[in-house]
């Protein structure tokens, strides 16, 4: 009878599905001696149970046994999927409504009922309890407490929540107010109800004033006509909806005007769309309205001494101004499907701000700058008391009603004790200076490199004429930019840096804005940030009014430089808007292409969304070279840091360890056995191998110590901790680190797989141990010029004959060498010299070369095909494959250098043939004779020795060529074998790859950037093996490129396997 063992309880005689002791493998027994801060007694419906406070759990969980024990009512719900910390998922469709008390905090929650097998505690209290409004959690050191706020009496609360969308004409309107008296609140509410017609809740309730209209006068009577921009079908549907709403509310009407400006559909951040009319051409010929905008400083000065401030915002203010009858046709625009014109003033017309400001000034009349301060569609009403504020608000609302203007209640503020207005914070304490306009400088971090110091000096030098003793102040900074001066940021540099910032943010450098003076906005952008300056001319010199800088976001850093420069202009105009509206100014940038941005017809959606904001400004764009924009370049490359939100997870390492073990099936079973403490024959080995310590399962080691048992789902985290975060060490060192504190089964196999799958190791580490690829012997055919090795050497100094390179040709058998000077590495010179060789010695069977462009070109391939020559290209970065030439190259360069010593270096090519003759008449060790003798069968006299040898030799010794070449072939074989033995001592057999395998290829050359390459990747890929060649070479295809993927040949010692996928 076969042995039957239960996989669940490990007892004999039954199977797991019929186990009488069946218990989920996550079951956890009672654990003693815990000191966990989050374990505490919980009161549920007046009954005391043991629980765990879990700030990471979204919901509260309760064991089934607890629900049954206390007869708690259960509700059947839809399935809830619960994911545990280590990845385990369970489902439950039951919940119970219960009252939970933790210390002084009490709340009711819907707890999810979970099987006892999944919880060690009776209840786990989650965030649905902890995050209730009246509960406060206080953690101080090792103490944790829970408190409850007292009940709030709503009747005594002065803050009222208004649902604006639900207000109708017959509804009671309540205004949101601060902590003021009930009487004042009632007065404000009654006042708003009295002037209900001044409140617009939808486009149908917009006012239409009779106090102003927009008339467009142009410098030319020629109509502006454009074809409609192309839109997708879904965009056309959106445009139809927008235009229909405008038609229904008499904002536009259908048109037969000779004018036609195109529209652009812009997607807003909230996902909705806005239709914008491209009025750039119309604005270019419009005569500008010179009505002045309010003087900001004068308005701000008059707001002092008040305690309460009411801010009013008109609803779609421009749409409340009618178009003059004779100008309606000029506002006509075309969609892909229709032709319309505006009856109300549209956004984007150049004179719209001036017309609207004239309207507000006229409407408020004598109230202007006394009880109400208008700036376009924003109106601020200051008061010393709430009663005075109510009275002044009545006066303003009355004049709004008279002139048919309506407010947008959501954007209005009533009786606030502080308010933001035109970039200032206004309160009872006074007007806080506009720190925003200088914080780009005041918050600039100290430079950390010489390059950043130069940028700061570039900014400061722009205003040096206003700073007394400028050179003396910045001398400590200037000193750091000199050559051979080590970087040292000390007290002198810190003082100079702070002094420069102070000088640039105070008078006379920083001046008060004057709308009557010539104004320029200088902008610059880089990948890290954008910067801008608002400058005005004073006494013939440009002085700063305000500074702006901002970091780019991660997405914006991927923008094209043209987009970044455009964005810099838009953000700058948005930031300086209160200064620039209604006046003519100049934008100065170092991006020449930017000048065309505001004249293009077809714009990218992102650019289109930006120019939507700048149509209301009047400005010219001027280009200046980057060298003249150093002052603003410093702001863009040293931007203000964006605020970073830090989310902190309230969980300790001990909590993580415990949670991970609780959700591991095998460890939960072991924990149950150890906690129960009952030893049986089947469980004896668990007590010998494991132990419970501090509520966690540990493994006993042979040396008597214990280490934490890593759950299956946590192995990756441990490997990441001990490998990725510990310097990406190898298998043995990573294993040694893990073994100090952790244990899990099959540790070596898992760690090896993990490291083999590490991308950083694959790309940045070189292959350890002996290099691959032993030397492959190529048999030499005993025929001169059967195989020719060819290579370029150089460049050298340009000779008098304009030569810069040497072309070296070596016969593989006789070692006879031809050296020819050439002007460049072009294929035409190579084929010309090879043609001469063919006419002298015949057509070679084979040519061996590297992968230089002269040898991989189409012309060279045609040349070889024409003569039937087999062309062998070396593998990438494998010079040993063309060793004949590589060795001769070194000898030739040395011989040429010594021969030309003391002569004009431009005559080096005149000595080439002398070096060639010397090489061919010198004994060659590999053939045991001279190349000349091996070629023609006798020794010849070299030109340098001929005069002397003619006196002492009168005969020429001729040899049997067949016998000589047989001896040479045998000697070459012996030399090749000796070379192979020496070479192979430091090498190992190459890894064998197959067609289709993925590999990484070693990077053999990097672009010259001037920076160190030590921290650069060592490999690139992935590549796929496409063909297995002889002598440990492979043709590989680059998978990184799309479309037609390039192929090349590499040797086995230049590649390594692609990472292996981590598996079980």
TrEMBL record:
Keywords from the named record? Aspartyl protease, ATP-binding, Cytoplasm, DNA integration, DNA recombination, DNA-binding, DNA-directed DNA polymerase, Endonuclease, Hydrolase, Magnesium, Metal-binding, Multifunctional enzyme, Nuclease, Nucleotide-binding, Nucleotidyltransferase, Nucleus, Protease, RNA-binding, RNA-directed DNA polymerase, Transferase, Viral release from host cell, Virion maturation, Zinc, Zinc-finger
Q: Which EC class heads this enzyme's classification? A: transferase
| Ranges where the Peptidase A2 domain occurs | 49-129
EC number(s) for this protein?
2.7.7.49
Its catalytic activity? Answer: Endonucleolytic cleavage to 5'-phosphomonoester
Q: Where is the Integrase catalytic domain?
A: 778-939
Q: Spell out the Gene3D superfamilies in the cross-references.
A: 1.10.340.70, 3.30.70.270, Acid Proteases, HIV Type 1 Reverse Transcriptase, subunit A, domain 1, Ribonuclease H-like superfamily/Ribonuclease H
**What would be one Pfam family of this protein?**
rve
Record InterPro entries: Aspartic_peptidase_AS, DNA/RNA_pol_sf, Integrase_cat-core, Integrase_H2C2, Peptidase_A2_cat, Peptidase_aspartic_dom_sf, Retrovirus_Pol_polyprotein, Rev_trsase/Diguanyl_cyclase
Main subcellular localisation: cytoplasm
Q: What GO terms in the biological process aspect are recorded for it?
A: DNA integration; DNA recombination; proteolysis; viral translational frameshifting
Subcellular localization, per the record? Cytoplasm; Nucleus
Q: Name one GO molecular function term.
A: RNA-directed DNA polymerase activity
- Every copy of the Reverse transcriptase domain together lies at 247-426
Q: What SUPFAM superfamilies does this protein's entry cite?
A: Acid proteases, DNA/RNA polymerases, Ribonuclease H-like
A Gene Ontology CC term for this entry? nucleus
Q: Could you confirm whether the keyword Repressor appears in this record?
A: no
UniProt function note: Capsid protein (CA) is the structural component of the virus-like particle (VLP), forming the shell that encapsulates the genomic RNA-nucleocapsid complex. Reverse transcriptase/ribonuclease H (RT) is a multifunctional enzyme that catalyzes the conversion of the retro-elements RNA genome into dsDNA within the VLP. The enzyme displays a DNA polymerase activity that can copy either DNA or RNA templates, and a ribonuclease H (RNase H) activity that cleaves the RNA strand of RNA-DNA heteroduplexes during plus-strand synthesis and hydrolyzes RNA primers. The conversion leads to a linear dsDNA copy of the retrotransposon that includes long terminal repeats (LTRs) at both ends.
Q: Which PANTHER family match?
A: PROTEIN CBG26694, PROTEIN NYNRIN-LIKE
- Subunit comment for this entry? The protease is a homodimer, whose active site consists of two apposed aspartic acid residues.
Name it. RNA-directed DNA polymerase
Protein species of origin: Lasius niger
């Amino acid at each position: 009878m076969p042995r039957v063992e239960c996989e669940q309880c490990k007892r004999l005689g039954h199977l797991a599905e019929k186990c009488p002791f069946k218990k989920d493998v996550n079951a956890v027994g009672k654990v003693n001696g815990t000191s966990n801060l989050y374990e505490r007694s919980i009161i549920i419906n007046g009954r005391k149970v043991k629980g765990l406070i879990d700030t990471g759990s979204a919901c509260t969980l309760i064991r089934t046994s607890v629900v049954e024990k206390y007869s708690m009512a259960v509700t059947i719900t839809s399935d809830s999927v619960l994911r545990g910390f280590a990845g385990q998922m369970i489902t439950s469709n039951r919940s119970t409504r219960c009252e939970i008390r933790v210390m002084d905090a009490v709340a009711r929650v819907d707890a999810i009922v979970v099987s006892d097998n999944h919880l060690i505690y009776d209840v786990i209290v989650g965030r649905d309890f902890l995050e209730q409004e009246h509960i406060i959690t206080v953690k101080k050191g090792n103490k944790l407490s829970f408190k409850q706020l007292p009940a709030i009496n709503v009747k005594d609360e002065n803050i009222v929540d208004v649902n604006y969308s639900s207000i109708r004409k017959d509804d009671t309107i309540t205004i949101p107010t601060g902590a003021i008296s009930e009487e004042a609140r009632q007065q404000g509410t009654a006042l708003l109800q009295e002037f209900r017609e001044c409140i617009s809740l939808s486009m149908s309730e917009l006012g239409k004033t009779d106090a102003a209209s927009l008339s467009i006068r142009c410098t030319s009577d020629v109509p502006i006509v454009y074809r409609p921009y192309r839109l997708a079908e879904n965009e056309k549907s959106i445009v139809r909806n927008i235009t229909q709403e405008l038609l229904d509310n008499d904002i536009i009407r259908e048109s037969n005007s000779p004018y036609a400006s195109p529209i652009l559909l812009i997607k807003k951040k909230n996902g909705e769309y806005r239709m914008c009319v491209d009025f750039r051409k119309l604005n270019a010929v419009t005569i500008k309205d010179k009505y002045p905008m309010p003087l900001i400083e004068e308005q701000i000065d008059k707001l002092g001494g008040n305690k309460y401030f009411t801010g009013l915002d008109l609803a779609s203010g421009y749409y409340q101004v009618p178009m003059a009858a004779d100008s309606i046709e000029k506002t006509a625009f075309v969609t892909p499907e229709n032709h319309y014109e505006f009856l109300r003033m549209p956004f984007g017309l150049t004179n719209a701000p001036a017309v609207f400001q004239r309207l507000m000034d006229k409407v408020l009349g004598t109230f202007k700058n006394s009880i109400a301060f208008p700036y376009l569609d924003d109106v601020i009403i200051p008061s010393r008391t709430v009663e005075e504020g109510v009275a002044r608000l009545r006066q303003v609302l009355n004049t709004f009603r008279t002139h048919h203007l309506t407010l947008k209640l959501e954007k209005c503020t009533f009786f606030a004790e502080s308010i933001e207005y035109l970039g200032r914070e206004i309160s009872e304490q006074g007007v806080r200076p506009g720190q925003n306009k200088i914080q780009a400088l005041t918050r600039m971090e100290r430079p950390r490199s010489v390059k950043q110091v130069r940028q700061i000096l570039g900014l400061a030098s722009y205003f040096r004429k206003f700073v007394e003793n400028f050179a003396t102040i910045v001398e400590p900074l200037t000193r750091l930019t000199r050559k051979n001066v080590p970087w040292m940021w000390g007290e002198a540099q810190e003082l100079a840096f702070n002094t420069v910032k102070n000088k640039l943010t105070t008078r006379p450098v920083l001046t008060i804005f004057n709308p009557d003076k010539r104004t320029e906005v200088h902008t610059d952008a880089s990948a890290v940030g954008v910067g801008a300056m608002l400058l005005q001319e004073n006494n013939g010199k440009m002085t700063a009014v305000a500074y702006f800088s901002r970091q780019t976001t991660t997405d914006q850093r991927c923008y094209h430089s043209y987009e970044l420069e455009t964005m810099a202009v838009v953000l700058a105009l948005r930031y300086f808007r209160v200064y620039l509206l209604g006046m003519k100014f100049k934008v100065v940038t170092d991006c020449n292409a930017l000048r065309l941005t505001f004249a293009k017809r077809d714009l990218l959606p992102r650019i289109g969304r930006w120019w939507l904001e700048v149509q209301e400004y009047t400005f010219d764009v001027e280009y200046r070279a980057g060298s003249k924009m150093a002052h603003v370049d410093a702001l863009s490359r040293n931007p203000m840091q964006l605020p970073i939100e830090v989310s902190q997870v309230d969980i300790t390492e001990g909590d993580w360890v415990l949670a991970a073990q609780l959700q591991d099936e095998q460890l939960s079973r072991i924990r149950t056995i150890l906690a129960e403490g009952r030893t049986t024959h089947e469980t004896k080995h668990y007590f010998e191998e494991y132990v419970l310590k501090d509520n966690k399962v540990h493994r006993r080691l042979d040396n008597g110590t214990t280490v934490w048992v890593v759950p299956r789902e946590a192995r990756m985290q441990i490997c990441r901790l001990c490998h990725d975060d510990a310097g990406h060490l190898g298998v043995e060192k990573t294993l040694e680190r893990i073994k100090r504190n952790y244990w899990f089964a099959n540790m070596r196999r898992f760690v090896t797989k993990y490291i083999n799958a590490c991308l950083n190791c694959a790309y940045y580490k070189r292959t350890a141990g002996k290099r691959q690829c032993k030397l492959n012997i190529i048999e030499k055919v005993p025929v001169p010029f059967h195989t020719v090795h060819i290579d370029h050497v150089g460049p050298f100094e340009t000779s008098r004959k304009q030569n810069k390179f040497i072309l070296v040709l070596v016969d593989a058998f006789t070692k006879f060498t031809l050296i020819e000077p050439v002007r460049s590495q072009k294929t035409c010179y190579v084929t010309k010299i090879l043609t001469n060789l063919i006419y002298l010695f015949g057509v070679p069977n084979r040519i061996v070369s590297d992968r230089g462009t002269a040898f991989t070109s189409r012309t060279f391939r045609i040349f070889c095909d024409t003569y039937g020559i087999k062309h062998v290209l070396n593998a990438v970065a494998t010079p040993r494959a063309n060793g004949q030439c590589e060795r001769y190259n070194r000898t030739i360069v040395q011989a040429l250098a010594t021969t030309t010593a003391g002569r004009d270096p431009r005559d080096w090519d005149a000595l080439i043939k002398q070096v060639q003759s010397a090489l061919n008449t010198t004994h060659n060790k590999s053939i045991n004779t001279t190349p000349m003798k091996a070629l023609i069968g006798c020794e010849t006299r070299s030109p340098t020795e001929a005069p002397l040898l003619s006196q002492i030799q009168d005969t020429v010794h001729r040899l049997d060529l067949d016998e000589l070449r047989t001896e040479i072939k045998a000697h070459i074989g012996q030399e090749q074998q000796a070379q192979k033995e020496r070479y192979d001592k430091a090498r190992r057999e190459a890894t064998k790859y197959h067609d289709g395998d993925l590999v990484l290829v070693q990077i053999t050359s990097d672009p010259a950037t001037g920076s160190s390459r030590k921290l650069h990747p060592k490999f690139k890929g992935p590549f796929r093996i496409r063909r297995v060649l002889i002598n440990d070479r492979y043709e590989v295809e680059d998978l990184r490129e799309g479309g037609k993927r390039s192929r090349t040949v590499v040797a086995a010692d230049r590649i390594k396997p692609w990472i292996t996928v981590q598996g079980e």
